[in-house]
Amino acid sequence: MQYLPLFVKLTDKPVLIVGGGSVALRKAGTLLTAGAKLTVISPEFAAEFIEWQQQGKAELITGYFSPELLDGKLLVIAATDNDSVNAAVFAAATARNMLANTVDDQPKCSFIFPSIIDRSPIIIAISSFGTAPVLARRLREKLETLLPQHLGPLAQLVGRFRDKVKAKFQGFAARRQFWEKVFDSDVVRDLEQNLPAQAEQRLDAMLQDQVPARQGEVWIVGAGPGDPELLTLKALQLMQQADVVVYDYLVSPDILELVRRDAERLCVGKKAGAHSVAQQETNALLIELALAGKKVCRLKGGDPFIFGRGGEEIEALLPHLIPFQVVPGVTAAAGCAAYAGIPLTHREHAQSVQFVTGHCRKDGDQPDWHSMSRSQQTLVIYMGILKAADIQAQLIAAGRHGNTPLAIVENGTRREQRVITGTLAELGSLVQQHQVVSPALLIIGEVVALQSQLHWFGQRPSAAVFAQPLTQLQ
């Protein structure tokens, strides 16, 4: 082990930085966050250094390094673009048995700056001892996605109760068991939902042995259109915490691979032409699991509030007083259009966008075909493949030009994504000819003609030559 990892309290401790440019600025920002008393020596300074001096956060000395500047300092950072100056700083510090860091010159470092994950007072530091800093940064980024922001408030709350717990429980084992119970309790949920006072009351009740049975809850989580890298950080964190994951067919296998390994997985997906679980049964299942004390992640393709029936499921939970939260996801219209290279709006071609579903309730009203048929508007139709021929006929009858560009995006954002382009008049035949299957999205509007230029992901589409230029369609 080349370096011993230490956490050093730098509050009001004197630190010298040699250099006043952008590299020195990065180090200075980290040190100021830690409360260090900064002195910076340089012939000239970046503007932010000047601001810090005006705010009393740093002392600036205009000039060049000399060894006596090290007197009384705890640490020194050499951050100039002059190798000989950096070497002189390191040599002078070594002669005084001082800790020194020479930026981007690991042999001239007696201490190093790790990659930091800050959930104060929880701090995680990652280092490769200067051998692979980019790799260390990548590891930090991965850990950042798994560590929720409420860790800091949780640690602060635990810290305030630490002496009380010591006074009540004798021995390390008893205290450890109590804290394990706390971390598995609704104290954590309260902090996730930004309810610190309620979390403190609950923890106090646990300490007084007034602990109710573990309460279940439901997380309505949007999984996005398929690419796991489009998941939000919060979605990934909840997927890792859930006892049970209730998911749809639209949730891709790659995303399901990110679910906690020991979590129970229940598929309640709905798929055209196949047996599926009725919505009422899904609602009942969520209620049953939550009332049994389970943490339930209801994982939905896209966004749960855009044709995802998330609102219906929450309404079912309300009479049972089941706690819930909603995590939005990238809806299919946004994700599939972006990965197909189709801007949903464009100043020259589309000033509005309309999301509609091609699969309404049997007793529901008919769509407003005339509003959906306006030019200079992008129309995105979810679940429209089975009714493609009818959609084509209705839109044209309502006034949409048959030569309007159209794209069918199958398995959008996934490795097997397929984009089929043509015109509105060809919609029904394109679906049959290419044997399009769900999940697939219809995008209709002048912006689709830009797709051939803006395409960037996956295979090139089956391109069409549109019968008329855009200016004639408008």
TrEMBL record:
GO terms for molecular function: precorrin-2 dehydrogenase activity; sirohydrochlorin ferrochelatase activity; uroporphyrin-III C-methyltransferase activity. The keyword Zinc-finger does not apply. The keyword Methyltransferase applies. It catalyses: uroporphyrinogen III + 2 S-adenosyl-L-methionine = precorrin-2 + 2 S-adenosyl-L-homocysteine + H(+); siroheme + 2 H(+) = sirohydrochlorin + Fe(2+); precorrin-2 + NAD(+) = sirohydrochlorin + NADH + 2 H(+). Then it catalyzes the NAD-dependent ring dehydrogenation of precorrin-2 to yield sirohydrochlorin. Finally, it catalyzes the ferrochelation of sirohydrochlorin to yield siroheme. GO terms for biological process: methylation. It comes from Alishewanella maricola. S-adenosyl-L-methionine binds at P225, G301, G302, D303, I306, T331, A332, M383, G412. Residues 150-207 form the Sirohaem synthase dimerisation domain. The active site is at D248, K270. Residues 216-474 are annotated as: Uroporphyrinogen-III C-methyltransferase. This is Siroheme synthase. PANTHER family: SIROHEME SYNTHASE, SIROHEME SYNTHASE-RELATED. HAMAP family: Siroheme_synth. The modification Phosphoserine is found at S128.
